[in-house]
Design a protein that fits this description.
By secondary structure, the chain is α+β, with helices and mostly antiparallel strands. The protein has a single domain, classed as Alba-like domain (Translation Initiation Factor IF3, 2-Layer Sandwich). Helices cover about 25% and strands about 25% of the residues. A 4-stranded mixed β-sheet has the order 1-2-4-3. Strand 1, helix 1 and strand 2 form a beta-alpha-beta unit. It is globular and about 40 Å long.
Length: about 130
């Protein structure tokens, strides 16, 4: 069992040291997916914390979308769910924490500055 996260903890503070994203039932799955993909590319893993069925639904949709974002880099995202006792506004709650990372422990190396990026056919880049 993990200890409760204090109410003053940062939104991105994770108990295990991995970056923590908090997802609610109102979170946009595409935005969460982008954040998941970015953290996994940089750090290798990300934790997602949810409370309630609606929040879990949004997090799982985001995970499915994020898998597509990182697949071309050879990253195969998997999820390990855990329960956590937390405190929200002085009230103890049970949250789910999803530990998300690459099945094989890989992470994409950041693109070096000055490197040209190429888009897959059928994808338009915004032009200035």
């Amino acid at each position: 069992m993990t200890s409760p996260m204090p109410p003053s903890a940062s939104q991105h503070e994770a108990h295990s040291g991995a970056e923590m994203l908090k997802v609610s039932s109102k979170s946009n799955p595409n935005s969460v997916a982008g954040a998941m993909a970015g953290v996994v590319r940089e750090e290798g893993t990300v934790e997602v914390q949810v409370v309630g069925a609606g929040a879990l639904n949004q997090a799982i949709k985001a995970l499915a979308i994020a898998r597509g974002y990182v697949a071309a880099a050879g990253i195969d995202l998997v999820c390990v769910p855990n329960f956590a006792d937390i405190e929200i506004d002085g009230e103890r709650r049970t949250a789910m924490r999803l530990v998300i990372g690459d099945r094989h422990g890989n992470r994409a190396a950041p693109t070096p500055p000055g490197t040209d990026l190429y888009f897959a056919s059928g994808v338009d880049a915004d032009e200035d």
